[in-house]
Amino acid sequence: MKSMTKLMVVAMLLVAALVVAPVAARTYVGPSDTDGIGVYNISNGDTIYVGEQHLEFNESSFDRGPAGILSGGQLVHFTDITASANDVSITITDASDFELKSSDVGTVTGTYYVFKAGVPTVYGNEAGTVSVQIPKVGLDVVLNDTPIDSVNGKSIARTTKLAFKLTTNLAGFSGLNFNDQPRMKIEVTLPSGGKTTEFGGKSMDYNMLRANGTTVYVNDVNLTGYEAGTYTAQAKWYDQGPGASFYGKGFDSNTVTFDVTTKALSLTANKDSVVRGKSFSVTIAGESKTDYLLFVKEVSSITPNEYPLVAPGQPGVKNTTSADYDLFFPALPIDVKNTVKGIVPDKDYTQAVVQTDASGTRTVQFNTTPQTKDRQFTIRVQDLVDPTKYDEVKVKVEKGAVTITASGTGVYYIGEEITLEGTCTDSDDIYLFITGPNLPPNGANLDDPTVPADSTKPNTFHHVEVETDDTWSYKWNTAGLNLDAGGYTIYAVSAPATKDDLSNVEYDTIAVQLRSGFISATTSGATIAKGDDLILTGTAQGDPDNVRVWVFGKNFFGNGRNLATYDVSVEDDGTFVFDDLDSAATRNLASGQYFVIIQHPMTNDFGVHADTANGVIYGEGITNVTLTNLQAPAAANALINALDSPNIDDTYVKLTFIIEEPQIFIDPIGDVPAGSTFTISGTTNLAVGDTLSIEVTSAAFTPTGKGEAAGFTSFGATTQVKAGAGANTWSVEIDGSSFKPDQYIVKVECIENTDATATTTFNVVEARPTTQPTVSPTATVTTTTTATTTTEATPTESPGFGALLALAGLGAVAYLVLRRD
User: What integer pLDDT is reported at residue 489 of this predicted model?
Assistant: First the structure.
């Protein structure tokens, strides 16, 4: 609220200042007979300019505020008049001859308050105000007839008339007589380096130019006879008379340049050759703001659409037809017109009337298409007033090229997505079609081979836009195209043209082999023990997203008595893994044979579906069947019959596996010599990779004294189940160096499937000593004595207590087996 009040006060004070300020009345007092210096008499409200000298402040005009004199007073610029806060304060050293220096003002312009000597510099004490500005001078060189068109920095012909345009902000001098206004001159630097104020038949010295805030023109500058080259001009302050104080202080104008050319009419092209389908441009150089006829010269034996064409809608370009030609040359006899013009009869866009800009130039774009003839064309620019003045340029239009490649090896399964890509420099578009067995002979639509390609109907092709780097790409999905397996050829064409119409277009081809999709699979084992995982692995070619797994067994339809299917994702390389029937699931499956059917959708979605809520299979063109009303083999056969229907394009693979109670068998071990290394092995229906725990413990249980070693021995190890030729196998090597003669118990147990265990026993016996041969020493004897050696019998060892218990146990087991039989 305070800031708003403050702004209102400031506004009211400014309005009051404007009301009381008298109308500016700067006057010029010429040089006196004594000092030869003229002065500008400044009144309240006048504008003064940085750099000015010989300023005289009119005492009678600055008579407000407290009494005093202006000499020794102040020029003050306030940032806030209500607080009398100022940022610039300049002393009026001499009110009768004052210089406003750039160093005093800096960049702070606007209203300055004038205070008399000795008067406090606060708002309300001022004697009046002046506006301080920095002098600004602008120079431009323009067309004489259209002064809004600058030719600064441009090239012009010698026949072009120019004008120099001088603008200043020195409106403070506008009320003075012409001779009392500041004097300027325009200095032109010639190509040779010389300088002049007499240029183009015009005097541009201080006697002609005044700076008074208005726009001043030096018109009708004629360049006839001037040499070709670059000219530079600048407006400068004169060093004598009114305004001389601005001389040499950096307030001269900007510089302008222009090039004078000797050739009145010329035509150039940005390219000597261009690939058809691309554009090129030509540039006309002639008179400023002049109309010229631009056209492609007629070529025999080509049709109108085979010419390069002037692009429509270009500024300064009016597309015409030959019918407009009489408007351009009304004075010429008809036979002369027909001889001179050389334009394409009745063809739009091969010619245009082009108006040059202020610099006498204009660039015009021509477009080519795939239909443009590949040959050299002549482009002509011609004067509309004098047809004998012209220039020509030749541009060659060349054929482009088209390439096509396909991802992969060239052999694909129907249903795969194939990336087609390549380059095209002949046009901005690629048109694709396909040929092959029993397809339309001249090609068919790539996305719908039932549609014949037609050169007159671009929509019968697949259209791809070419990128700015001349490349193109298309992902072709072969699913659902109703194409049989076989060899096909794909055409990439620069225009909609069929196989019999390729003579005037660029094209390339690629051969592809399509094969029918298929599926293969295998189970993790022909026999699966309860509690082991069932894993199905396979490959589905043809790029399906999923395959569908059906499982049947005794009173089992995928989820007990309920029908269930499993959709399994297929990886990018075509592989899939089904592991939904894990150990928890197989543990609850009944023993027996199971049937697996893995369904491949081929090129469309699955053709046979399951209504799992009602146990029904259904599909288009097949009879619905309630599988859960059938026995498992019949249900599997019913599904296979549905998949084999000619109305269903799905394929499938069949597998079987058997669920058994988990079993581990231990091969006979026999007697093992004490201290030896031996192997325990066996077979099992457990899954490959399952881990078996093997424990070997002594059957002995004999008390020992404190000083005796314990007779109890044990061993533990693990091993993994390996695939065998029939049943899976397992084995473990035992280091028996610490085993004493005794009977031992072997227990084998599966870690993953705890329902599977097996036990057996074996004996460790004393190792038989090795009999050493007797070697008789060679000696000379005189008497021979025959001696009889008696060898003691080796006592037979009886089994220990533990061994007897074990044998008794085995006898009990045998008895139970006999009773079960």
Answer: 96
| pLDDT of res. 701 | 54
- Listed in order, the ranges of the chain carrying CATH 2.60.40.1930 are 137-261, 519-660, 664-703+710-765
Residue 34: pLDDT band with limits 50, 70, 90: very low
Which part of the chain has CATH 2.60.40.10?
266-398, 405-515
* Residue in the structure block whose two tokens are 């592991």: 579
pLDDT digits (tens, 9 = 90+) for 228-240: 999 999 999 998 8
- What is the per-residue pLDDT for 791? 31
| Residues 764-772: contacts with CB under 8 Å, at least 24 apart | 764/671, 764/672, 764/673, 764/674, 764/736, 764/739, 764/740, 765/671, 765/672, 765/673, 765/674, 765/741, 766/673, 766/674, 766/741, 766/797, 767/673, 767/674, 767/675, 767/676, 768/673
Dihedrals phi, psi of 623, to nearest 5 degrees: -90, 135
Q: Helix, strand or coil for residue 35?
A: coil
Strands of 14-150 (E only): list them: 27-29, 39-42, 47-49, 55-57, 74-80, 85-91, 110-115, 128-133, 137-143
The pair of structure tokens assigned to 143 is: 């067309």
Answer yes or no: are the C-beta atoms of 518 and 543 closer than 8 Å: no
Largest CA distance in the chain: 181
Give the count of beta carbons closer than 10 Å to the beta carbon of residue 275: 21
Inter-residue contact 425 to 481 (CB < 8 Å):
no
> How far lies 614's CA from each of 132, 264, 392, 462, 618, in Å?
99, 94, 85, 45, 11
Model confidence at 603: pLDDT above 90? no
Residue 809 has pLDDT above 60, yes or no: no
- pLDDT tens-digit readout, 487-529: 999 999 999 999 999 988 899 999 999 988 889 999 888 888 8
| Sequence-distant contacts of 140-148: CB under 8 A, at least 24 apart | 140/164, 140/165, 140/167, 140/256, 141/165, 141/233, 141/256, 141/258, 142/358, 143/288, 143/289, 143/358, 144/219, 144/220, 144/221, 145/289, 146/289, 146/358, 147/217
* Confidence band for 798, pLDDT divided at 50, 70 and 90: very low
DSSP calls for 411-467: EEETT-EEEEEEEBSS-SEEEEEEE-TTS-TT-EESS-TTSBPBTTBGGGSEEEEPP
What letter would DSSP give residue 20?
A: H
CATH of domain 664-703+710-765: 2.60.40.1930
C-alpha dihedral, 564 to 570 to 576 to 577, nearest 10°: -50
Contact yes or no for 720/692 (Cβ under 8 A): yes
DSSP label at 245?
G
Contact indicator for 131, 17 with CB cutoff of 8 Å = no
Q: Cα–Cα distance between 599 and 485 in angstroms, integer? A: 20
Distance CA 199, CA 195 (A): 10
70-98: average pLDDT: 92
Pick the closest to residue 743 from 694, 672, 814, 693 (CA basis): 672
Q: Give SS3 for 381.
A: strand
495 DSSP assignment? S
In whole angstroms, give the CA distance from residue 428 to residue 434.
Answer: 21
Specify the CATH class of 137-261 in words.
mainly beta
- CATH architecture of the region 405-515: Sandwich (2.60)
User: Phi and psi for 798 in degrees, rounded to 5?
Assistant: -95, 150
Work out the percent of the chain whose per-residue pLDDT is above 70: 85
Instruction: Take residue 130 and report the two structure tokens written for it.
Output: 């002046």
Task: Quote the mean pLDDT of the chain.
Answer: 84
Give CA–CA dist 78/132, Å, rounded: 13
* CATH number of the structural domain 266-398: 2.60.40.10
Cα separation, 64 vs 41, whole angstroms: 18
| Domain 519-660, CATH homologous superfamily name and number | Macroglobulin (MG2) domain (2.60.40.1930)
With a threshold of 0.70, does the pTM exceed it?
no
Compute the chain's Rg from CA coordinates. 56
